[in-house]
Write a structure and sequence with these properties.
30 strands, 39 helices
């Protein structure tokens, strides 16, 4: 196919978007957009995972048939074409081939071809599902089919757990015909292949387009999950998130993450270089974001669940390199008492009525020491001084955290017309000198960049404005230039064409950008509105003589005064019209609310609820009006800046313009004041009318009695009215309650401070809501969810309160029971942990008690075996003893390993070493065992296997010895074959693959499922016949997982043998420079310890004798001590070259003795001698000051080698 240009690709995507949206919108009919979007987006997601799965299948099938591929399956190895085809089909259903490429595994039921082919079937039709074997599925409905498909995908892919909502399509109740149409006409039309675009790019583009269109269709609600791409793009382009952690605490559908990946790709960065962290409180939106990430193949961490960012931070320890967000503007109902004194409020506690500066400080809290952040806020955040906001803003400025302020044009959002700005903050203004990530940035301390982009953009339709690519580059390019280059006067004076660098030097542009100092910002009262700093665009001299211009201005001024009646029209045609329209719109909204309240007596809607809603809405409307005033102040500043431009030419001319501007401003201010006064006067009238409506409460009595508990009190809290529900729940009569206060039902559960806060709230005219525990007349407690609403008299003072309650006793009892259950579970958990700790301690002690005598037996058996004059029969006895002590030591090691794996305490090393050394060592030892059983051991290594690997050599040996040893043990005739090969994986580290096949006794199908369970063998006869503990495979499976690998049973049948496959990623990349570990193969020299004095501190007489013989044979002089106390005395009285110190001894243990020796100035090598084989014990020994560490049982060779290296180079003992 011919590759298309970028413009042709974009045109294709645009045409596809419109075509699919028109088709989807036609099928929507009357279904609400907020509901319908889940039907469409869920199907797009399912189509994507299925397409990606099919593409990987095609790649695999081609590789299986390609002789040059590592996956090649040779046709010659199969008897027929049918057998060959079947083998390929079986391989294509192996999930490992898909998960290794980060492709979701899609079960047959969920594959798009299955859904498309069967969507229109009649109910109760049986479908054949093929997956290596034939299965049956009964088709109930197309909605049920999709739900089952999505559930199957989630079940097979742990990354999608919680992402897919259960039974979503059944709940939608969308007509079957429309759902089938969506599948066949819309989603199936998304092309699987294209000339130059892949399925992932196309589906990702369609998903984003549909998100935007649904946001438009939903209006205000759409803004909860969608931020327009142009705004996301400008923020990402300015922050430049090339690599690191990216965090969005109000992520919506994840637009910032998608654009960050797009930015990296567009600028030639490495995909996957960023780690994505997000949080979202809305469960539906949380799932939308997760699907959005899955479609684009982006790994993500959105926390355990949807949750409130302030109250349930899902990433409390995160410190991100980049933080970006579009949080809800001016939200008022966000505060909770638990947030008082929160460590995030470094620069001041945010006002409880507005969360703007809570978002700012939350994001700063999660910012890394050299990180940068950006967030969208309403323009009011730049200038408001309400309830301490000005002080917080001042603190942020003076802490030099503010880097840039960007004023945006209006009409960019689908959900609000409130003018917005972008705050850019950073913890690194020092530039490249302080942080490698900021290399190339200049020192910007004490400076803030202001950008006024309100004049940029174009109207893409009648409602929304958008940025052009040139607009985006102008904004982001200005910011980049300011961050990277200082203003050089000699360049600033040259024409722009002389700029030779790719990034033009920064300079202030009147009307667009200004680099201001903190002193300048302080002079403006720490107001951060860009219009105050950037000024207005320079006006070129038109060459008109001053006398002529003066005459013209005078004439125009006279005309203005003469036609003053037309002034309002002139104003409304300019920017003032925008402000007047905002105010008039707010006035209309107040009138509407007033009419709603006045008509309440004719409706069945609760008077209290309406009043509460009205009062809640007043705050954002007042903020919007104040925002209009603030924007008007910017407009005024623009006009005055223009005046300053003109004043450069003539002072007289400026005076005339000042008169003109002043007249306009005065009239505008009068108009705004009138509308504000009218608005707030109407609010007062509305509250008075609402008070009068209390007289009509009797009309709602019957309705309230059936659902709510109602009481009315005067301003002192004396009850004047209660309804039947109140009496029923409190068990008091109406006569017993009227004239009393609520103290009559006070249970004593709540503190005095609780009621003081309640009274302070309602006395100030605010609505209070909370949960209260009361006591009924019969002494029983009950809980109510309470609203208390104040009502006002003609003077605006609080006169009465109405309390509306709901009985929540059952819910609270359930919560108490759950809390008790949780407490019991936590207690059980502590008991289990204590038991596990006791088990670990027991195993460690048993290891010591068993290894010590085994070490003695093994040591003396080694000495006997070295004797030359032992008869042959007795030598065989000695070898039997040695072999069984080694076996017993191995069993103990396996039990300890299993214990550590189960306790999640298994430590893994990561070393680079030659693979051939491991293979040769294991082959030599295993070949001897195979020859003893009369079978052949064949070990082959493919040429493609690299010489060096990167993993834990000890654990690798343990796995291979277990697997090969098992194969030999259970094979009586035939052979054991071991093959090492390399599995190539594109864009990832290759895998080492080891196949171990034998011709032994094999296993039944029933035994397959238990093969990796600990202490399990085929049956009791197997144990009697072949021996063993049944731990080898269980430990090997767990060790393989710990090494990020896998161990699986490939095939096994009774009498036909068994094949296991072990694989792990352990190859270093070709460009990585690695240093192999050095393994000393030097044998101890005879007499190497001659003349050396060694102190042996050991409480076991047998071990004393054994070690003395080992050391004396090598020429050392040995002095012994029976415990730690004796050892200290000997060490301080005599001179020694080295001390061997047992850990576990009576009177004074090894650690105590070591501490005294070191405190007395002994610096000679002191080596720990212990039967504790746990790694924690070894680490403690080095931490306490031991020079080396030896684990019992020890051999003569190991002991002498350790002592020789310690005396030669004390550091090598470790």
């Amino acid at each position: 196919m011919t590759k298309l240009t970028s413009a042709e690709e974009q045109q294709f995507l645009d045409d596809l978007d419109k075509k699919l949206w028109n088709a989807a919108d036609r099928l929507r009919s009357n279904l609400d957009a907020a509901v319908y979007k889940h039907a469409v987006l869920g199907l797009i997601f399912l189509k994507y995972v299925s397409d990606a799965f099919d593409l990987r299948r095609e790649e695999l099938e081609a590789s299986f048939r390609d002789s040059k591929s590592d996956y090649f399956l040779d046709r010659a190895d199969y008897k027929s074409d049918a057998a060959y085809a079947k083998a390929i089909h079986v391989e294509l259903e192996d999930r490992d081939y898909f998960t290794e490429k980060n492709v979701f595994w899609v079960p047959p039921l969920a594959r798009w071809q299955t859904i498309r082919s069967n969507a229109a079937l009649a109910p109760d039709t049986e479908i054949e599902i093929r997956n290596g074997k034939t299965g049956k599925y009964v088709f109930r409905s197309v909605a049920r089919l999709i739900d089952d498909a999505l559930e199957a995908v989630e079940k097979e892919n742990s990354r999608l757990k919680g992402v897919i909502e259960k039974s979503r399509y059944m709940q939608l109740q969308l007509e079957a015909a429309k759902l089938v149409g969506l599948i066949s006409e819309v989603v199936s039309s998304i092309p699987f292949r294209h000339a130059s675009l892949n399925a992932k790019d196309i589906l990702g583009h369609v998903y984003e387009y549909f998100l935007g269109q649904f946001a438009l269709a939903e209006g205000k609600k759409g803004g909860q999950y969608y931020t327009p791409k142009s705004i996301v793009s400008v923020i990402v382009e300015m922050l430049e998130p090339y690599a690191g952690k990216v965090y969005d605490p109000a992520m919506g559908s994840g637009g910032f993450f998608v654009q960050s990946e797009a930015f990296i790709e567009a600028h030639g960065g490495k995909l996957g270089a960023i780690s994505v962290y997000g949080q979202e409180s809305n469960p539906t939106t949380w799932r939308l974001a997760a699907m959005n990430m899955a479609i684009r193949g982006i790994d993500f961490n959105f926390g355990k669940q949807p949750a409130d960012t302030f109250l349930s931070d899902q990433h409390p320890d995160l410190r991100a390199d980049y933080v970006m967000a579009n949080p809800p503007f001016n939200i008022s109902e966000w505060w909770d008492g638990r947030l008082e004194g929160d460590p995030r409020w470094v620069h001041g506690t945010p006002p409880k009525s507005n969360a703007n500066f809570a978002w700012v400080q939350h994001m700063l809290y999660h910012l890394a020491p050299h990180g940068s952040m950006a967030l969208l806020l309403a323009n009011g955040s730049m200038s408001s001084n309400t309830k301490g906001e000005g002080e917080i803003r001042k603190a942020l400025v003076e802490a030099d955290l503010v880097e840039c302020m960007l004023a945006l044009p209006g009409q960019l959002f689908t959900n609000t017309q409130i003018p917005a700005c972008v705050w850019f903050l950073t913890k690194n203004k020092k530039g490249g000198a302080i942080s490698p990530k900021a290399r190339g940035l200049r020192d910007r301390q004490g400076e803030v960049l202001f950008i006024d982009a309100r004049q940029l953009g174009y109207m893409k339709d009648r409602v929304l404005r958008d940025f052009t690519p040139a607009d985006l580059e102008k904004i982001s390019g200005t910011f980049r230039a300011w961050k990277r280059q200082r203003v050089r006067p000699e360049l600033a004076q040259r024409p722009s064409s002389e700029a030779t660098s790719k990034l033009a030097p920064y300079k202030d542009i009147p009307g667009f950008c200004k680099s201001a100092t903190l002193a300048e910002i302080s002079a403006h009262g720490h107001v951060l509105t860009p219009g105050r700093y950037v000024g207005t665009e320079d006006v070129a001299d038109d060459g008109e003589p001053f006398e002529e211009k003066m005459q013209k201005l005078v004439t125009e001024l006279n005309a203005q005064f003469t036609e003053s009646a037309k002034l309002e029209k002139s104003i409304t045609s300019a920017k003032g019209q925008d402000f007047l329209q905002v105010i008039q719109a707010k006035e209309s909204e107040h009138n509407y609310e007033l009419q709603q309240l006045m008509s309440m007596k004719d409706s069945k809607i609760s008077n209290e609820k309406k009043l509460e809603d009205f009062r809640r809405d007043l705050t954002p409307k007042r903020l919007a009006l104040e925002q209009a005033l603030d924007d008007f102040a910017d407009f005024e500043a623009d006009l005055i800046n223009k005046l300053k431009q003109e004043s450069k030419r003539s002072e007289d001319n400026a005076k005339i313009v000042i008169i003109l501007i002043t007249a306009i401003v005065v009239i505008l201010l009068l108009a705004i004041s009138y509308f504000l006064f009218s608005s707030f006067r109407r609010r007062a009238v509305t509250e008075w009318n609402a008070h009068k409506n209390l007289e009509e409460l009797d009309a709602f009595k019957k309705a309230l009695d059936t659902s709510s508990i109602v009481a009315i009190t005067d301003k002192r809290g004396v009850i004047s009215y209660v309804n039947d529900k109140f009496c029923e729940l409190s068990k008091y009569s109406r006569e017993e309650l009227i004239g009393k206060t609520h103290k009559v039902i006070n249970s004593g559960f709540h503190s005095k401070e609780f009621f003081a806060d309640l009274w302070a709230t309602i006395s100030s005219g605010k609505v209070w809501r909370g949960e209260i525990n009361n006591k009924a007349k019969d002494g029983t407690d009950y809980w109510v969810d309470t609203f208390i609403v104040p009502f006002f008299d003609d003077a605006g003072a609080v006169q009465e309160f109405i309390a509306i309650r709901t009985d929540i006793t059952e819910r609270k009892n359930t919560e108490t029971a759950l809390a008790e259950n949780k407490k019991n579970l936590e207690g059980a958990k502590r008991v289990a942990e204590a038991a596990n700790s006791a088990k670990t301690s027991f195993l460690a002690n048993m290891s010591h008690e068993i290894r010590t005598p085994i070490g003695v037996i093994q040591g003396f058996a080694d000495l006997l075996d070295e004797c030359q004059d032992i008869p042959t029969e007795q030598r065989q006895w000695v070898q039997t003893i040695r072999r069984n002590t080694r076996l017993l030591t191995s069993v103990i090691g396996e039990i300890l390993d299993l214990s550590k794996v189960e306790a999640d305490k298994l430590e893994i090393e990561n070393l680079v070493f030659p693979l051939n050394d491991v293979i040769e060592d294991i082959s030599a030892s295993m070949r001897f065992k195979a020859e003893e059983r009369g079978i052949a051991l064949q070990v082959t290594v493919d040429e493609a296997v690299p010489k060096m690997i990167n993993t834990d050599p000890t654990r690798l040996r343990q796995i291979l010895i277990n697997l090969i040893g098992n194969a030999i043990k259970f094979t009586e005739h035939g052979h054991v074959k071991v093959r090492f090969s390399k599995m190539a994986i594109a864009n990832q580290a290759s895998k080492l693959r080891v196949l171990i096949a034998d011709t032994g006794i094999g296993m039944s199908a029933e035994q397959h499922s238990k093969v990796f369970e600990p202490f399990v063998q085929g049956d009791s006869s197997t144990t009697r016949r072949f021996g063993g503990t049944g731990l080898g495979l269980a430990i090997s499976k767990r060790l393989a997982t710990a090494l990020s690998g896998d161990l699986r049973l490939v095939e096994s049948a009774p009498g036909k043998g068994t094949t296991f496959e072990f694989s792990l990623c352990c190859f270093s990349s070709e460009n990585e420079q690695v240093k192999p570990i050095e393994v000393s193969k030097e044998k101890p020299k005879v007499g190497a310890l001659k003349g050396k004095r060694i102190l042996l501190v050991e409480d076991s007489p047998d071990n004393q004798i054994l070690v003395q013989i080992f050391l004396s044979d090598s020429g050392a002089e040995v002095v012994t001590a029976n415990n730690g106390r004796e050892g200290v005395d000997q060490a301080l009285l005599q001179r020694f070259d080295l001390i061997l110190l047992d850990i576990q001894m009576p009177e004074l243990d090894g650690y105590g003795a070591l501490k005294i020796m070191r405190s007395k100035g002994l610096t000679l090598p002191i080596i720990a001698l212990t039967a504790h084989a746990l790694k924690e014990e070894r680490e403690r020994a080095y931490r306490e000051g031991f020079s080396g560490y030896l684990t019992k049982p020890i051999t003569k060779a190991i002991l002498l080698q350790k002592l020789q290296s310690s005396l030669t180079n004390p550091l090598s003992a470790k």
